[in-house]
Amino acid sequence: MTESYVYAAARTPFGRFSGALAGVRPDDLAAMAVTGVLAKTPDLDPGAIDDVVWGNANGAGEDNRNVGRMAVLLAGLPTSVPATTVNRLCGSSLDAAIIASRAIETGDADIVLTGGVESMTRAPWVLPKPDRAHPAGDVTAVSTTLGWRLVNVRMPKEWTVSLGEANEQLADRFHIPRERQDEFAARSHNLADGAWADGFYDELVVPVELHRTGGVLARDEGIRPGSTVGKLAALKPSFRLDGTITAGNASPLSDGASAVLLGSGAAATRMGVDPLARIAGRGVYALDPQVFGFAPVEAANRALKSAGITWSDVSAVELNEAFAVQALACVDTWDVDPSIVNAKGGAIALGHPLGASGGRLLGTLAHRLVESGERWGVAAICIGVGQALAVVLENVRGTGR
């Protein structure tokens, strides 16, 4: 078997719910990410891309009918470039990269473009289709933005609690108080602001022209510079009257797209650039749906085992911050220095457009390893309905421990 490598990564800025990207269709956002990542490998003939694997969690609106294929066509790639769309909810674009890496390693493909998109602003309301003509009574429009909808009555009630209630239960189980969650959230905002100020995201983020309203969105819209525990403490709990989770210590609803270009070692000649990192290990795990926030613990442990390393070898971690409490529960359980987790900010500040977040994690991790020269990193993400994914990267550009 050959090995698979990350060659390039790019993403749009992540916009706030009903914010600057509200007027941009998700298929257009996806096309922008595709164009942005291919600009990093100008020697690559787009027609040489063997496949596109794209992530998307909703698929109920403008992102329907295989949004990955729509992105390929809208980006102007040859119609001969195929594409598929995968849905593992929040983990969709990380799943896309995992699927692509396996195709490369088995020899089924040499170059695969991966990524994902989500416009949570433009997610539609849906009506259940009646099982007979002209039914009596009213029907209710259901928002497809986030969480359970049209729930099967056979599902146990404890499985289908809201995402917020599920994480309040994690706070109870692991005794993680509100103040720790607010500290973690403030850290996320300030590290993200610092990373932008230092130019870290300049190479990763592709500005979006806002044709409807004019102007350009060039930076993640949700970052709040100067966040403090004191400011966050003023926010009211969102899910329980006496709860710990607020709008300030949970990831926001977001819009955005990400892309990661993968290839074999031999593909470097056609890419015209050297790879950034090697896909060294993968892990997937599942548990009870309401405990989804804790699932990255075992997914990452399995990815490390697959790579043949331990936490003592790891120098960088990108963990999606769906909620501060679940991120803290994972970090507390791993044998890892908390300071290496999300050192450039996380989803609480940057945003969490579901289908795009995994690609953001992977691209950020690869660039962190290149920047530091350190060798090993882990990207992990929790997934609604009780799942998680993780990937281990090995830096192939620098020499580190």
Could you describe the 3D structure shown?
The protein is of the alpha+beta class. It has a domain of 263 residues: Thiolase/Chalcone synthase (Peroxisomal Thiolase, Chain A, domain 1, 3-Layer(aba) Sandwich). 29% of the residues lie in helices and 20% in strands. The chain is built from 11 helices and 14 strands. The strands form 3 sheets. Strands 1, 2, 3, 4, 5, 10, 11, 12, 13 and 14 form a 10-stranded mixed β-sheet that branches. A two-stranded antiparallel sheet has the order 6-7. Strand 13 and strand 14 form a beta hairpin. Helix 1 packs across helix 2 and helix 3 packs across helix 11. The radius of gyration is 20 Å and the shape is globular.
Structural class determined from secondary elements: alpha+beta
The CATH topology of one domain turns out to be Peroxisomal Thiolase, Chain A, domain 1
Mean pLDDT: 97
**Portion in strands:** 15-25%
Give the CA-based shape: globular
Rg result? 20 Å
Low-pLDDT regions? none
CATH homologous superfamily designation of one domain: Thiolase/Chalcone synthase
What's the β-strand tally? 14
**Helix content bin:** 25-40%
Give the H and E element order.
EEHEHEHEEEHHEEHEHEHEHHHEE
**Major sheet size, sense and barrel closure:** 10 strands, mixed
Number of helices: 11
CATH class of one domain: Alpha Beta
The CATH level-2 architecture of one domain is identified as 3-Layer(aba) Sandwich
- Spatial separation of the terminal alpha carbons: 26 Å
